Amino acid sequence: MTDNASERRGARRVNARLSLRINDPGAEEAQLSASIETINISSSGIYFRSVRFLEPMTKLALGLELAVPGAAGGDDRDLALVQCQGLVVRTTPEEET
User: Fold this and answer.
1) Distance of CA 32 to the CA centre of its chain
2) Dihedral sign for Cα atoms in the order 47, 53, 59, 63
3) Going along the chain, which residue ranges are E strands?
4) What would the pLDDT profile of 8-28 be if each residue is shown by its tens digit?
């Protein structure tokens, strides 16, 4: 990540590898949804890598799995699926190796 002087985002990003399910309602049926992993996250966005190109301004339905305190209490954790909507605002093409 770049230093704060050149960073344009208003929200601080945190490295987090979380399970993410994306659903592109405008995609062809075979490419409608995918399970991927986040790279980092903030209160205003999620950065992730996709094997399929997502056009900027594409609306997505997102399901983010988060660990929450378990019903039994203590150190037990359960997974909660947080459903939200997102908009692709930027893409970065992979560099060929």
Assistant:
1) 16
2) negative
3) 14-15, 19-23, 33-42, 45-48, 59-69, 77-87
4) 667 899 999 999 998 887 776
